[in-house]
Design a protein that fits this description.
The structure is a single chain. The chain is of the alpha+beta class. The protein has helices at 9-18, 22-29, 39-52, 55-68, 73-85, 89-103, 111-138, 140-146, 152-162, 194-199, 201-214, 256-261, 263-270; strands spanning 220-221, 243-250, 253-254, 284-289, 298-303. Strands 1, 2, 3, 4 and 5 form a five-stranded antiparallel β-sheet that branches. The termini are far apart.
Length: 320
């Protein structure tokens, strides 16, 4: 509906909200025909009700907005905040979690929403920690009765339910082999050669340091898409020496020069049960990450089919 000056009821209500006149805004919003009510109408009503101190009715108004737009970020964030003020921490955490899931799709947040979103994260984290503690305390006596039985799966189940972690499943890049068990971390007992590899960490580091000093030019960019290929998130590092590799095995072929330069590492690899797929595997390398968004300056040795890392601090880089 349009007023005598051509302003809609919604616009006049927003003007009243800007004046901090919640009651005037409510009177105007009450006149909006049902057919013209949109999610924004409910959001304005919720704000007006907050101004008048009626938080319970404000939550109901936000539910009206969410009925029309279940993924309305402002409605979710506002409802979480109101529930928190009403002392309903558990319900607030559930709504906050939904709001954060929606916000993850945003590239940036308006400055005015940064603090509320951070509060939402804190509330979700606090509820998650409290729930996990409650669950562990509730089953503590049962765990004690289990004695020495392996309870890793049960503990992981509890952690997933509480929201501390997520269920990790296969996300293959090339081929999906169905019906494999989703085991995040395999038992060390399945890899009898791992102890020998770990014991040689200092020797591996020494050979890595040596080739970094003497054969730095032999490190090739790890990300190397051909021209015209979609690089997606790898655009910044495509063909960049900021993430480079020194291959001892590459796509099933032994790199004789590199193995000669790193005889101890090569001997360890030869003794390991590596994959054998000509033209594809194994691949084993020293991976040099000079500038990394995720973890600055780390060095890893990868051995397929399993992946083993020997990590060095940034100071190990030296002049390289």
């Amino acid at each position: 509906m349009t007023g005598p000056d051509g302003d809609t009821l919604g616009a006049r209500a927003k003007a009243a909200l800007q004046r901090r006149d919640g009651r005037a805004a409510l009177e105007l919003l009450a006149q909006v025909p049902a057919a013209e009510v949109i999610a924004d109408t409910w959001l304005d009503k919720a704000l007006a009700l907050r101004m008048t101190g009626d938080l319970v009715a404000a939550v109901d108004a936000l539910d009206g907005a969410l009925t029309l737009e279940p993924r309305n970020f402002l409605a979710l964030l506002s409802k979480g905040a109101l529930l928190e003020r009403l002392g309903q921490a558990k319900a607030a955490a559930v709504i906050y979690r939904n709001a954060l899931a929606v916000s993850s799709a945003f590239e940036t947040l308006p400055l005015a929403l940064v603090a509320p979103v951070e509060r939402a994260r804190q509330a979700v984290a606090a509820h998650t920690a409290a729930l996990a503690e409650h669950l562990r305390a509730s089953v503590a006596s049962l765990r004690a009765e289990a004695g020495g039985e392996a309870l890793e799966r049960f503990d992981e189940c509890l952690s997933i339910y509480a929201g501390e972690t997520r269920a990790y499943v296969q996300e293959p890049l090339l081929i999906t082999c169905p019906r494999l068990p989703a085991i995040p971390f395999y038992d060390r007992a399945l890899f009898p050669w791992l102890a020998e590899l770990e014991a040689a960490t200092t020797e591996l580091q020494g050979e890595l340091h040596a080739v970094m000093e003497a054969r730095a030019d032999d490190f090739a960019p790890y990300i190397a898409f051909p021209p015209g290929a979609p690089v997606n998130q790898w655009g910044e590092l495509n063909h960049s020496r900021r993430w480079s590799s020194y291959f001892l095995w590459k796509d099933g072929a032994r790199q004789e020069g590199a193995c000669a330069a790193c005889p101890r590492t090569a001997a360890l690899l030869d003794a390991m049960p590596m994959d054998d797929q000509p033209g594809f595997a194994p691949t084993a390398m020293f991976s040099l990450n000079v500038v990394c968004t995720f973890e600055p300056s780390v060095f890893c040795t990868y051995c397929l089919p399993s992946s083993c890392a020997c990590v060095q601090p940034p100071s190990f880089c030296g002049p390289t």
